[in-house]
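fyi for ur records
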Amino acid sequence: MVERLTDAERKAALRELKDWAEVDGRNAIAKSFRCADFKEAFAFMTRIALQAERMDHHPEWSNVYNRVEILLTTHNAGGVSQRDVTLARFIDRIAPMRDHG
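which gave:
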């Protein structure tokens, strides 16, 4: 079973993850991304989906035109785990080079 990070471990991970933030009322992290258009947003989400499937770890997300909102939490661990941190790092590596937020 995947273990949930302690509060200290989660906070340390967030210091290393650019612009990811804790979600009020949930043991989760989230970030918003802005793409050039819907096509770029869909391609971005597709790359994440393929990696998430390889990891057997799937984000909660939404997409409206060029904006992608991503929330990461490990449901069977009851909160943020190392899997979320690993997926967040991957997402940041492939993110479109635009202003986030």
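Helices lie at 7-16, 38-55, 82-94. thats all i got for now
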